[in-house]
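C-alpha coordinates help. One example:
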Amino acid sequence: MGRRLGVMGGTFDPIHYGHLVTAEEALEQFELEGVLFVPTGRPWMKEHEVVSPPEDRYLMTVIATASNPLFSVSRIEVDRDGPTYTVETLRSLKNELDADLFFVTGADAILEMLQWKEPEELFELAHFIAATRPGYDIAGFEVPAHARDAVSVMNIPALAISSTDIRSRVQAGGPIRYLVPEGVKSYIEKAGLYR
Protein backbone atom coordinates (compact mmCIF):
# COMPACT_ATOMS: atom_id res chain seq x y z
CA MET A 1 0.00 0.00 0.00
CA GLY A 2 1.39 3.44 -1.00
CA ARG A 3 1.23 6.62 1.03
CA ARG A 4 -2.32 7.74 1.76
CA LEU A 5 -2.70 11.47 2.27
CA GLY A 6 -5.86 13.40 3.12
CA VAL A 7 -6.40 16.76 1.44
CA MET A 8 -8.95 19.04 3.07
CA GLY A 9 -9.81 22.02 0.95
CA GLY A 10 -12.06 24.81 2.13
CA THR A 11 -12.52 28.51 2.59
CA PHE A 12 -11.89 28.11 6.37
CA ASP A 13 -13.51 31.49 7.08
CA PRO A 14 -12.98 30.71 9.92
CA ILE A 15 -11.72 27.17 10.49
CA HIS A 16 -13.63 25.55 13.39
CA TYR A 17 -13.85 22.36 15.42
CA GLY A 18 -16.18 20.76 12.85
CA HIS A 19 -13.36 20.93 10.27
CA LEU A 20 -10.81 19.52 12.73
CA VAL A 21 -13.07 16.65 13.85
CA THR A 22 -13.79 15.80 10.21
CA ALA A 23 -10.06 15.65 9.39
CA GLU A 24 -9.34 13.52 12.46
CA GLU A 25 -12.19 11.16 11.58
CA ALA A 26 -10.88 10.81 8.01
CA LEU A 27 -7.39 10.01 9.36
CA GLU A 28 -8.83 7.17 11.42
CA GLN A 29 -11.50 5.77 9.09
CA PHE A 30 -9.36 5.82 5.93
CA GLU A 31 -6.00 4.98 7.56
CA LEU A 32 -4.35 8.17 6.29
CA GLU A 33 -0.79 9.17 7.14
CA GLY A 34 -1.75 12.82 7.50
CA VAL A 35 -4.15 15.54 6.40
CA LEU A 36 -3.04 18.55 4.38
CA PHE A 37 -5.34 21.55 4.85
CA VAL A 38 -5.60 23.72 1.72
CA PRO A 39 -7.28 27.10 2.34
CA THR A 40 -8.69 28.49 -0.92
CA GLY A 41 -7.10 31.57 -2.41
CA ARG A 42 -9.90 33.18 -4.40
CA PRO A 43 -12.78 30.67 -4.33
CA TRP A 44 -14.48 31.05 -7.73
CA MET A 45 -17.83 29.77 -6.41
CA LYS A 46 -17.91 32.55 -3.79
CA GLU A 47 -16.97 35.46 -6.08
CA HIS A 48 -20.15 37.34 -5.12
CA GLU A 49 -19.67 36.82 -1.37
CA VAL A 50 -17.47 38.68 1.09
CA VAL A 51 -14.57 36.38 1.99
CA SER A 52 -11.79 37.28 4.45
CA PRO A 53 -8.32 37.84 2.95
CA PRO A 54 -6.50 34.58 2.08
CA GLU A 55 -3.60 35.34 4.42
CA ASP A 56 -5.95 35.66 7.42
CA ARG A 57 -7.67 32.37 6.57
CA TYR A 58 -4.29 30.66 6.06
CA LEU A 59 -2.96 31.90 9.42
CA MET A 60 -6.12 30.83 11.28
CA THR A 61 -5.74 27.34 9.72
CA VAL A 62 -2.08 27.16 10.81
CA ILE A 63 -3.04 28.18 14.36
CA ALA A 64 -5.91 25.66 14.50
CA THR A 65 -3.86 22.70 13.25
CA ALA A 66 -0.54 23.42 15.03
CA SER A 67 -1.14 21.04 17.94
CA ASN A 68 -1.65 17.97 15.71
CA PRO A 69 1.58 16.59 14.16
CA LEU A 70 -0.47 14.72 11.51
CA PHE A 71 -2.02 17.98 10.22
CA SER A 72 -0.21 20.40 7.92
CA VAL A 73 -1.28 23.45 5.91
CA SER A 74 -0.45 24.28 2.29
CA ARG A 75 -0.14 27.74 0.71
CA ILE A 76 -0.66 26.30 -2.81
CA GLU A 77 -3.97 28.11 -3.38
CA VAL A 78 -3.24 31.17 -1.24
CA ASP A 79 -0.16 31.93 -3.37
CA ARG A 80 -1.83 31.21 -6.74
CA ASP A 81 -3.03 34.22 -8.74
CA GLY A 82 -6.62 34.35 -9.95
CA PRO A 83 -9.52 32.06 -9.02
CA THR A 84 -8.58 28.71 -7.46
CA TYR A 85 -9.89 25.41 -8.80
CA THR A 86 -9.74 22.05 -7.02
CA VAL A 87 -8.72 20.19 -10.20
CA GLU A 88 -5.61 22.40 -10.60
CA THR A 89 -4.69 22.00 -6.94
CA LEU A 90 -5.07 18.21 -7.04
CA ARG A 91 -3.00 18.05 -10.24
CA SER A 92 -0.20 20.03 -8.57
CA LEU A 93 -0.30 17.97 -5.37
CA LYS A 94 -0.34 14.71 -7.33
CA ASN A 95 2.83 15.80 -9.20
CA GLU A 96 4.51 17.12 -6.05
CA LEU A 97 3.68 14.32 -3.60
CA ASP A 98 4.13 10.61 -4.11
CA ALA A 99 0.82 9.64 -2.52
CA ASP A 100 -2.73 8.48 -3.08
CA LEU A 101 -4.86 11.55 -2.39
CA PHE A 102 -8.11 11.46 -0.40
CA PHE A 103 -10.00 14.74 -0.79
CA VAL A 104 -12.10 15.40 2.32
CA THR A 105 -15.05 17.73 1.92
CA GLY A 106 -18.68 18.16 2.93
CA ALA A 107 -21.33 16.06 1.22
CA ASP A 108 -22.94 19.34 0.07
CA ALA A 109 -19.75 20.21 -1.85
CA ILE A 110 -19.67 16.78 -3.52
CA LEU A 111 -23.18 17.43 -4.82
CA GLU A 112 -21.90 20.67 -6.42
CA MET A 113 -18.86 18.97 -8.01
CA LEU A 114 -20.47 18.54 -11.40
CA GLN A 115 -20.40 22.34 -11.66
CA TRP A 116 -16.68 22.43 -10.80
CA LYS A 117 -13.99 22.89 -13.42
CA GLU A 118 -13.19 19.62 -15.27
CA PRO A 119 -15.23 17.37 -12.93
CA GLU A 120 -14.45 14.13 -14.80
CA GLU A 121 -10.71 14.49 -14.04
CA LEU A 122 -11.29 15.11 -10.31
CA PHE A 123 -12.20 11.44 -9.71
CA GLU A 124 -9.00 10.28 -11.44
CA LEU A 125 -6.81 12.49 -9.22
CA ALA A 126 -8.25 11.61 -5.80
CA HIS A 127 -10.67 9.48 -3.83
CA PHE A 128 -13.40 11.75 -2.44
CA ILE A 129 -14.62 11.50 1.15
CA ALA A 130 -18.04 13.11 1.59
CA ALA A 131 -18.44 14.08 5.23
CA THR A 132 -22.01 14.41 6.43
CA ARG A 133 -23.12 16.50 9.35
CA PRO A 134 -26.22 16.23 11.56
CA GLY A 135 -29.44 17.20 9.80
CA TYR A 136 -27.93 16.95 6.33
CA ASP A 137 -30.13 14.97 3.96
CA ILE A 138 -28.00 12.75 1.73
CA ALA A 139 -31.02 11.18 0.05
CA GLY A 140 -30.29 13.26 -3.05
CA PHE A 141 -26.67 12.16 -3.03
CA GLU A 142 -26.27 11.08 -6.65
CA VAL A 143 -22.75 10.37 -7.83
CA PRO A 144 -22.20 9.84 -11.55
CA ALA A 145 -21.79 6.13 -12.39
CA HIS A 146 -18.16 6.52 -13.54
CA ALA A 147 -17.24 8.10 -10.17
CA ARG A 148 -19.05 5.80 -7.71
CA ASP A 149 -15.89 3.89 -6.77
CA ALA A 150 -14.08 7.19 -6.14
CA VAL A 151 -16.50 8.53 -3.49
CA SER A 152 -17.08 7.35 0.09
CA VAL A 153 -19.57 8.80 2.57
CA MET A 154 -18.22 9.38 6.08
CA ASN A 155 -20.46 10.13 9.03
CA ILE A 156 -18.89 12.41 11.62
CA PRO A 157 -19.79 12.90 15.29
CA ALA A 158 -22.62 15.28 16.07
CA LEU A 159 -21.05 18.68 15.45
CA ALA A 160 -23.36 21.12 13.72
CA ILE A 161 -20.92 24.04 13.61
CA SER A 162 -20.76 26.29 10.56
CA SER A 163 -18.41 29.12 9.56
CA THR A 164 -21.45 31.17 8.48
CA ASP A 165 -22.92 30.92 12.00
CA ILE A 166 -19.56 31.84 13.57
CA ARG A 167 -19.22 34.96 11.37
CA SER A 168 -22.79 35.98 12.30
CA ARG A 169 -22.09 35.50 16.01
CA VAL A 170 -18.94 37.65 15.84
CA GLN A 171 -20.79 40.37 13.93
CA ALA A 172 -23.56 40.38 16.57
CA GLY A 173 -21.05 40.35 19.43
CA GLY A 174 -22.02 36.79 20.44
CA PRO A 175 -19.72 34.11 21.92
CA ILE A 176 -17.64 31.76 19.75
CA ARG A 177 -15.60 30.10 22.50
CA TYR A 178 -15.65 26.29 22.14
CA LEU A 179 -16.72 26.60 18.47
CA VAL A 180 -13.20 27.49 17.30
CA PRO A 181 -9.78 26.83 18.88
CA GLU A 182 -8.79 29.55 21.38
CA GLY A 183 -5.94 30.75 19.12
CA VAL A 184 -8.38 31.25 16.23
CA LYS A 185 -10.76 33.18 18.53
CA SER A 186 -7.86 35.46 19.55
CA TYR A 187 -6.81 35.94 15.92
CA ILE A 188 -10.36 36.93 14.90
CA GLU A 189 -10.48 39.49 17.72
CA LYS A 190 -6.99 40.95 17.00
CA ALA A 191 -7.54 41.13 13.23
CA GLY A 192 -11.05 42.58 13.67
CA LEU A 193 -12.55 39.97 11.34
CA TYR A 194 -16.32 39.69 10.71
CA ARG A 195 -17.19 43.00 12.43
Notes: The first strand starts at residue 4 and ends at 10.
